[in-house]
Amino acid sequence: xxxxFNSSLWNTLVLVILGILAFITKEIVKAAVIQFQIQxxxxxxxxxxxxxxxxxxxxxxxxxxxTQESNKAEEINQxxxxxxxxxxxxxxxxxxxxxxxxxxxxxxxxxxxxEVNEKMRKLGEKLKGQVTIENTNIVVxxxxxxxxxxxxxxxxxxxxxxxxxxxxxxxxxDKEILNNLIQDKVINSEARKLGLYPPEEQLEAYLxxxxxxxEKLQLEEIKVFLKAWGVSEEEYLLLMRDRFTSSLAKAxxxxxxxxxxxxxxxxxxxxxxxxxxxxxxxxxxxxxxxxVEVSSEGRQLGLDDTLMEP
Length: 310
Description:
Blueprint: H1 2-5, H2 8-79, H3 82-96, H4 110-127, E1 139-143, E2 146-149, H5 150-166, H6 174-193, H7 200-217, H8 220-229, H9 233-239, H10 241-260, H11 270-273, H12 280-289, E3 292-294, H13 296-300
Antiparallel strand pairs: 1-2, 1-3
Helix pairs in contact: 3-10, 4-5, 4-8, 5-6, 6-10, 7-10
């Protein structure tokens, strides 16, 4: 027997048994691993299912919240009755169209008058041949469907350039000038949505006030300005019609914010004194959502997407 355990046959048999045991052990471990993986997979599936459910609920809640906010915005827009719109427009008219005692207005001394005349002459020369009736029909960009014309662009550029020269400051870049116009058109769009875009009667009343002002005062600098520009008083009023409309739209919206906005009660009233002064916190959200499209004519003037504020 001792010879058997020392024989090569025994050694072979031991190797075979060890091999079988190793195979069995491997299969047991493999089965355990598979079972563990299955359990892990099931656990992951369970966690993922819970996560998906939570995300779905969050999406539903967000959608409901957005719907509520949208409904709230619609409710705000729908709150204005015709009587309220008339009240806001009346408030604007009272703040911008006022009876003036022209006899109390003093004229500047000759030196000051000469200085004012020169500044107005330079502005008129910048406008000549660019801010024209023809150019009011050329649309260079649209903001929420509100047109910016070539005349708008040339007037804003000339005006801002002259202001900078008068104050001996840097001339603003085209990007800044274009964004001024975009802001005006965004406010026009918002006023239109609220039913506060200036009606024809309001605009005509404002134009009549401007005409009366020019006729009564006969300001020397205005005559110099119009002569350098190469337009008559009536042509001036016609060319300024869109700019006056934008000013009235801004004033109407400012009075609306003052009366129905969400500013603290202590802040209400500042717009009534100056309806054209509106905080950036009210305008920036509108600019962020504005849809600006530059036309081929605008691109010929150098207006492109690189000039748009992000």
